[in-house]
């Protein structure tokens, strides 16, 4: 087999020792996919169909959801699973299509770094969100935020 031909799907594995990260990446895509179906469609159903539906979405709606640990964890789980899933999927595509070793390395690192940064920022937003931050006397939230 030369470098540009693929091994037959059922041929014996060359790698015998250590953790098979590619296999676990493959398993992760399936497992996170199943969880994401529940999380994403649950998210869409609650936000767009229940109560006043899409017309009910405003700052207060989001603030109300972020005040509940249940929705904080729902959203953070969705953020982590989808970002790692999306980044790992993009890594697969880059590995499949980018033939230059340097370009491939740069792109895979860029994907990893941007996913890590977005996960960090998103997690901080969900857990440190404070609707009263920067509220002034001319805001509708002023009264509520005095307590
Ligand atoms: C509704 C929930 C989702 C399910 C059930 C799902 C399922 C899957 C599965 C099973 C794969 C592997 C395909 C393969 O190996 O051939 C995959 C690949 C991928 N997914 Fe998802 N996914 C979901 C949501 C998402 C989201 C939200 C994103 C973006 C953040 C995303 C981005 C990707 C990418 C970029 C790939 C790689 C595509 C490729 O290899 O050609 N997916 N998805």
From TrEMBL:
Chief subcellular location: membrane
Protein name, UniProt field: Succinate dehydrogenase hydrophobic membrane anchor subunit
Keywords: Heme, Iron, Membrane, Metal-binding, Transmembrane, Transmembrane helix
InterPro entries: SQR/QFR_C/D, SuccDH_FuR_B_TM-su
Residue ranges of the TM segments: 27-50, 70-94, 106-129
Subcellular localization: Membrane
């Amino acid at each position: 087999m030369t470098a540009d031909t693929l091994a037959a799907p059922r041929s014996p594995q060359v790698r015998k020792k250590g953790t098979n990260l590619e296999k676990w990446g493959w398993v992760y895509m399936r497992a996170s996919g199943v969880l994401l179906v529940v999380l994403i469609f649950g998210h869409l159903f609650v936000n767009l169909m229940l109560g006043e539906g899409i017309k009910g979405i405003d700052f207060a709606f989001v603030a109300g959801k972020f005040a509940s640990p249940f929705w904080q964890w729902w959203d953070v789980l969705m953020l982590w699973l989808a970002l790692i899933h999306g980044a790992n999927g993009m890594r697969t595509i880059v590995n499949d299509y980018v033939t230059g070793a340097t370009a491939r390395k740069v792109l895979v690192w860029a994907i990893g770094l941007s996913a890590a940064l977005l996960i960090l920022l998103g997690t901080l937003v969900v857990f440190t969100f404070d609707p009263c931050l920067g509220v002034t006397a001319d805001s509708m939230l002023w009264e509520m935020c005095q307590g």
